[in-house]
User: Fold this.
Amino acid sequence: MIFPVQKTVLIDSIDLGQRARKVYSGIEELAADIKERGVMHPPVIEEKLDGSGYLLVAGGRRMIAIISLGWIDTPASVYPPLDVYDHEAAELAENINREDLTFVERANSIKRVHALYEEKYGKQHGSGGGHSQSDTAILFGVSRATVQRELEIANALDVVPSLAECKTATEALKKFKRIEESYLRSELTKRADIILARDNQADFKRQLIANYHVGDFFAGAAELPSRSFHVAEVDPDYAIDIATHKKGVDTNLADYHEVAKDGYSDFLDKLIAEVKRLLLSDGWLILWFGMHPWYHTIEDLLKKHNFSFCNPAIWTKPFGQTMWPDRYMASCYEPFFYARKGNAVLYKQGRSNIFNFPPVHADHKVHPTERPVDLMMAVLECFAPPHGRVLVPFGGSGNTLLAASNLGMTSTCWDLSQAYKDAFTSKVLEGSFANGAGRP
Assistant:
């Protein structure tokens, strides 16, 4: 690798060459800044082979600004005569320090420099010669881990160009990881029969997977007889514009089908009526909801359909989040109504209405509103009898099915997303139930 030497050279000795950029904007502002603070990032030049001066490698805009100041000389980063590899690498390396560089441009530039030197010196194998990521890191004055990350970003952009639309490199990498995971789950689902052929719980797992239906709940429920379930655990897709209100990066939203706000009341009305039909004469409805503005709407609908209900129960979390910390406290709870049809009774009597469980870690979530299996076990054992039947209209992560299975209950669910079922199938095949353990 060749490194530049910092020198002061005569401006007349620098050949600007044929620049790709013909028009430079903001020259006056840049010249004023250079006059006040000096040349913070010297132009990059190389010595001509015939010794007649220098050729500009990078920094055309800065050179024009310096010339406009009438200076005789300028500080510069001077390379010896460069071949085609070093010339392009030097220009790319210099541009990495630009403040307006996007994460896409930065990653692609570092990848290009790394590829140029691999082409020139060969790839490093073992302790032998060749160019390595460590060599590229030295060139840019960064860590090897940084170079590795930039190469991962650039490679991900090659596979999924739409990642360039992400706001940050972190968001792009997380989204790519989710895409990879989704693909692997899809492939795992296709091989389920081969995997289960060697599993002593094959019949149980096949049935559990079959209980997760891809499709519309209302269409599927129409085939079911009335009064079939002890409890319905319902987590409707809240009309809260989750993509706007979800803080940070959440790449699970692509398959999340949210009900529009203007039709949400009618949707809930139809949903509650159908759930009531499917519940036994003495059954429980567990209904998660967004407190504002849906509390009174749901309260009125439960009364309309003759459900008896108490104040909501609360799932509390040790930490929360808010999109507007200057206006709102971080939300650390989620409420659900528990509403009784007929003379249903609690199966775990005397329990408080506070359920305190940590949420699923963001890196492990497959659904934006995923709840932990152990929370759902605690909820179900309050409202369903041993060996009870559980209805889950909106399956999502499928964790309610896993919770029911761990308690010896049977359950069935629907979801519009095949990707969510693939994620659920992966959990079942791996035995990833409550606390990381499969059903005994």
The chain has two domains: 5-165, 191-436. The longest strand covers residues 331-341.
